[in-house]
Amino acid sequence: MILNSLLVDPATLETATGWTIKTEGACKGDVCVPLPTSLGPGSAIDAHVLSESLGMPLVADDAHGLWALGPESSITGRALTTAVAPDIVLPDLDGRPVRIADLRPMKVVLVAWASW
Fold first, then answer.
1. Structure confidence at residue 115 as a pLDDT band (50, 70, 90)
2. pTM for this structure?
3. I need a labelling partner for 67 at 20 to 30 A (CA). Which of 1, 44, 55, 101 fits?
4. How many helices (DSSP H) and strands (DSSP E) are in the chain?
């Protein structure tokens, strides 16, 4: 979830992540995580609180005044331990092998798709 403010609107949070803010805390499916009781209904939530409570990493891009929140890891058991891809080799459009490490220091986006 990309943020241009550290205050997160509950409706935006639900649309982007599936977490709903209720009186019992942040809820997704059958899982509810307590949040500070000082939050009123519909109140914006500090991204730092969401990050800590939901186990979602919060990363700042100071140069552009943006933040990225998520994905949750401690709640779901999935962990994103680094943003650095392993040194894999993939074919380019002509079938020639390309090492990801050879593309450094450029930023690379890997898109994966599966039919199942």
1. confident
2. 0.60
3. 101
4. 2, 10
Q: How far is CA 42 from CA 12, 33, 34, 83, 113, in A?
A: 11, 17, 16, 33, 36
Give dist(CA 11, CA 25) in Å, integer. 14
At residue 5, does pLDDT exceed 60? Answer: yes
26 within 8 A of 36, measured Cβ to Cβ: no
Alpha-carbon span 111 to 109, nearest angstrom: 6
Q: How are beta strands 7-8 and 20-22 bridged, if at all? A: unpaired
Tokens 């779901």 locate to 76
Backbone angles phi, psi at 100, to 5 degrees: -60, -40
| Cβ pair 22, 14 in contact under 8 A | no
Distance CA 48, CA 57 (A): 9
Tens-place pLDDT, residues 29-76: 888 888 876 666 678 899 999 898 888 889 999 999 999 988 776 665
Q: Is 90 exceeded by the pLDDT of residue 24?
A: no
